[in-house]
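Note to self: keep these together.
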Amino acid sequence: MAEEKPLELSRYCVPFTPLRTRLEEAIICIVSTAGVRMKSDPPFQVEGDATYRVIDGAAAAGDLAYDDAHYDHACADRDLNCIFPIDRLRELGAERRIGGLTERHFSMGFSSALRELRETTIPRLTREVDRARPDAVLLTGG
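Structure:
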């Protein structure tokens, strides 16, 4: 039997890409690993879930919930924007400090299934983000 090689995600990380437009014109997409979802969506399985949820770009923090047992929720309990800053970014758009938000954002929950994430979830999520056509992606974690 062949020995299985260890999984090395660092080789698959996306390199830094410089912003090619002015921030005041940039359309932003939020991608999070904080377990955020629309309240109407099925909850993430907190002990392991390699799926992701689509967040409507018109949603406000009050339309969202989060499912995670792996980080301190004190700040998120007071204001979900600290883990998924959709209201703050919308305010920046209204002030013309950013160009606006994409029509869809994305969030993943906790998972230790690194191979499944690398081989299935991340490629699907990457295609979804690409279809959202953002100028920049804001990554947040839980």
